[in-house]
Amino acid sequence: MPSEYAALVAALKLSTTPIAEYAWKTRPEGAFRVISLDFESGSLNADGEKIDRSWEGSVDLFYPKLTDRDDLIEETEEILTEILGNSWELNSTQYETGTGLFHVEWTFTVLDNEEPETEPAAQNAGDA
Amino acid sequence: MPYEMKVDGMAEISETLSRMEERAAAVASKALYEGAGVMRREVAKQIASIKTAPFQYAGPGQTRLPSPEEKAAVERAGAGVAKFDKNGTEVNTSVGFANSGYTKLAGKTVPVPKIVNAINSGTSFMQKQPFVRKASKGGANGAMTAMKNVIETEFEAMNKN
What we know:
The complex is a heterodimer. Chain A is an alpha+beta fold. Helix content of chain A is 33%, strand content 39%.
């Protein structure tokens, strides 16, 4: 799992709004967020190897009261900016007629680049 | 005796150049048509991978998967290609479900875009399966290659004439 994604999940868990992760089976009450890593997108392949692996994921916010909107949206976007910088965007805003919930969706891209960072260190240790 | 120089064929070049924009727009439309086809096929491929479960109402605190009937409705509608919007040599279109009509589900008439949106973006009681987003990211390279190929072949043919 990309470290940035794990950091994002941890940061969202610190918030008072409940969070449902990938493959969630139960629906929390009131306002809640859903976070999932959706699919691989934008990976860099060169010389028949995968140089950088990149994933696209999404954060969804469901909230029942319009008065909560600004706080919840602002909080989510602050967390996204803090962890991911600017590699996220607001994808859609919707309204569910059946449940009366508002639904805001952000998508983000995270890079799974842990391996290249550890490789040079191991080489140096061997040389010494 | 003065040395005389004569250049022929300027009229033809002039005529060709004056028709260039028109021909470029036609090539762009042809390329876009191919590109849109690639995207449509990519969406169709992603629709096939939607997970389903027999329909049951999601009670309080429960979630559900899309029903096979909902998937069939999306499959039947398929992604459409919007009317080409031409402006000089620029041609625009979009591939999606915006105008894919209605379907009958358990006696109710439901808009297909609403079903697509529920599956693609998820709802408070349905986990998302972002097949349109995945197709748009996964098919972009293929569509671009297809469009490039059409443009190259067309321009080669134009240069020969």
